[in-house]
Amino acid sequence: MLPEYFPVFTADDILLSENEYEKGDKKTSVGWLKDLFLFSHPTAHHLWITVEDRKDYNSAIDKFRKLSTIKGNLHEWEDSTTAKKQAAALNLLRKKMGYTEIVDA
Questions:
Q1: Do residues 68 and 89 lie in contact, with contact meaning Cβ atoms separated by under 8 Å?
Q2: Which positions ≥6 away from 12 have C-beta within 8 Å?
Q3: How many Å apart are CA 100 and CA 72, to the nearest integer?
Q4: Is residue 1 part of a domain?
Q5: How far is CA 1 from CA 73, 88, 104, in A?
Q6: 25-63 burial, b if ≥16 CB within 10 A, otherwise e?
Q7: What's the count of helices (H) and strands (E) in the chain, helices before strands?
Q8: How many CA atoms lie within 13 A of 36 on its CB side?
Q9: For 60-73, what is each residue's pLDDT tens digit?
Q10: CB 17 within 8 A of CB 23
Q11: Separation between Cα atoms, residue 86 and residue 50, nearest integer Å
Q12: What is the reported pTM?
C-alpha cells in the first residue's frame, strides 16, 4: 500500500548502523522505506503484508536505487554514505513520487 504520508527527512532521522534497521526514532534508509511501504497500516504485521504492499515496496526501492545512482548492494551504500546524503536521497524519492505535503518524520 502506498503510504498516506511521506515525511521530510533530516540527517537526525537516519540511523547509521550495520546491524539494525531501527533504534528509537531513527531508522536506516531501508528501514524507513520498509516502515512507509510495508508497515504503514496501523495493524500491519509481517504475516499480513499483501502482494500489493510488496510490489509498492519493491517499486520504491527500485526508484530509490535509480535516483541515488546505487549500482551495488544497498546496505553497503547505507554503510558508506552519510546520514545527510541518505536523508537527501529519501527526500528526492518523496518528491519524485509526488508527495508535496510537509509532514515531519
A1: yes
A2: 26, 83
A3: 30
A4: no
A5: 25, 23, 20
A6: ebbbbbbbbbbbbbbbeeeeeeeebeeebeebbeebbee
A7: 4, 2
A8: 28
A9: 999 999 999 998 88
A10: yes
A11: 27
A12: 0.84
CA pair distance 100, 105, nearest whole angstrom: 14
Does residue 3 lie in a domain region?
A: no
Tell me whether residue 22 is exposed, middle or buried, using C-beta atoms within 10 angstroms of its C-beta: 0 to 12, 13 to 18, 19 or more: middle
Task: Please give the tally of structural domains in the chain.
Answer: 1
Give the pairing type, strands 22-23 and 26-27.
antiparallel
> What residue type is 3 in one-letter code?
P
At 4, which amino acid appears? E
pLDDT (tens digit per residue) in 28-85: 999 999 988 887 665 555 567 788 888 999 999 999 999 999 988 898 899 899 999 9
For residue 82, the enclosing domain spans: 11-96
Q: Which three cell numbers stand for residue 34?
A: 520498509
The verdict on residue 47 lying in a domain is yes
In a domain, 4, yes or no: no
